[in-house]
Amino acid sequence: MKRFLIRACILPIIIAAVSAEPSKPKQPPHVVLIMADDMGWMDLACQGNEKLRTPKIDDLAVCRT
After folding, report:
1. Percent of the chain having pLDDT more than 90?
2. CB 3.0 to 4.6 Å from 46: which of 20, 24, 41, 61, for a disulfide?
3. Is the pTM of this model over 0.70?
4. 1, part of any domain
5. Contact, 46 vs 61, CB < 8 A?
6. Taking all residues of the chain, what is their mean pLDDT, rounded to a whole number?
7. What is the CA radius of gyration of the chain?
8. Is position 8 within any domain?
């Protein structure tokens, strides 16, 4: 009897989970990937480098002041 009650309680949950449609995002996320060869941690102007100018990357940087 106990097994029957457990199955009777779990079965509707399983059916609801299987029949539910996954939510789809309205539009794909925007992803920007910047790859640079041999860039050090302080090679961008936004990170304190005074010799190099990187204005476009600085506009994207979170560390910009």
Report:
1. 2
2. 61
3. no
4. no
5. yes
6. 79
7. 26
8. no
Task: Identify the band that residue 36 occupies on the pLDDT scale cut at 50, 70 and 90.
Answer: confident
Domain count along the chain = 1
Does 45 have pLDDT greater than 80?
A: yes
CB 45 within 8 A of CB 39: no
Element (H, E) at 28: none
Q: Which domain holds residue 51?
A: 25-65
* Nearest to 52, CA basis, from 42, 60, 62: 42
In a domain, 54, yes or no: yes
Query: Of the candidates 59, 60, 63, 58, which has an alpha carbon nearest to the alpha carbon of residue 45?
Result: 58
* 3-state SS, residue 25: coil
Residue 11: inside a domain = no
